[in-house]
Amino acid sequence: MKTYLxxxxxxxxxxxxxxxxxxxxxxxxxxxxDKLTYAGNLENLKDIEAxxxxxxxxxxxxxxxxxxxxxxxNEIDYVVNFAAESHVDRSIKEPEIFVKTNVLGTVNxxxxxxxxxxxxxxxKQGKKFMQVSTDEVYGSLGKTGYFLETTPLDPHSPYxxxxxxxxxxxxxxxxxxxxxxxxTRCSNNYGxxxxxxxxxxxxxxxCLNHKNLPVYGDxxxxxxxxxxxDHCKAIDMVINGGRIGQVYNIGGHNERTNMQIVKTIINxxxxxxxxxxxxxxxxxxxxxxxxxxRYGIDPTKIKDELGWYPETTxxxxxxxxxxxxxxxxxxxxNITTGDYQNYYKxxxxx
Length: 350
Ligand code: NAD
Ligand code: DAU
Known about the structure:
43% of the residues lie in helices and 18% in strands. With 350 residues, it is of the alpha/beta class. The protein has a domain at 2-191 and 226-253 and 289-312: Rossmann fold, CATH 3.40.50.720. It has a seven-stranded parallel β-sheet with strand order 3-2-1-4-7-8-12, with helices on both faces. The longest helix has 23 residues, at 95-117.
């Protein structure tokens, strides 16, 4: 019975990962350590909270005493570190919290895991620290080419710089102590439970409320979209089969301009849900500072070494995501009151 310490499991990808793992395996324990920031939501885990293989601890990954206590009380086999401040726009306004959680929090986890797992001459068998990182650490691409694991790190936003800092600390723990680690760098995720500050759920929510659809700059920036379950599958494969110390890129060659995403969502909702959802809602707004132009992942390494491939095409995934948001309107309504609304008002001055 393996025990996973999943951090940030109440957020978007973390919650999907907890569901994915508990559906797939009946012989694992998951301890979810989450601070429940504005982005963490226990509603995302309501259906599994009574599962005997799952427990929740509210707390900060920077809290040394708490993390040490979790390691002292449980034989933790894997740390899967999702916990992070994850939104680029927020990082431009408030960089410090990104350094605190993303860099110092990761170092705290690394250090305590190292102390718990280190034995004379190495590390206990079967342990692994899994760092969930992002393609944004590579910076921005021109019209051609893809991010490889060997692409130089060149982050631009405080968010991506903080993720790069944590990636390098993970690398340092491998290079220095030979600690068993892996890092994954995935492209943009979409799917159930995504917080509506991110492009796709924001567009769906605004369309349904007949609000403007804020498009940064000319709408021609490109992101490489992956359905969240395919990311979860990849992380599981890397935990089980990834070569120690290696980085794995994750992405499904699904590049779209932001405007293509906007139009896809408008067209689907117009045809299937509400005739008042039209392109008239599109509003060009001031561009994001330092806005990366294009991301595009080369996933050859994870495909060749671990046999990973994306199962959900964008055409299927986007419909599933829109449908999930329609079926879970109460979830969205609960979120879009309070902190998020104030944040949203201040950010875009609508
Ligand atoms: P999210 O913002 O939806 O969730 C983050 C979670 O971390 C929340 O539950 C929050 O409460 C928790 N958290 C924040 N600070 C914490 C702290 N100090 N201690 C404990 N918990 C804390 O983020 P997400 O989109 O699910 O991203 C998860 C991870 O995946 C991040 O590390 C992110 O960098 C990475 N990632 C995201 C994407 C994407 O497209 N969303 C793509 C690649 C990688
Ligand atoms: O690439 C992986 C990254 O993807 C993750 O590491 C980040 O945690 C995640 O937030 C995401 O970052 P992006 O900045 O790419 O995602 P976001 O949804 O914020 O924006 C996607 C694109 O849409 C980007 O080009 C900015 C643009 N955009 C975004 C918002 C919120 C708009 O045009 N209007 C908007 O209102």
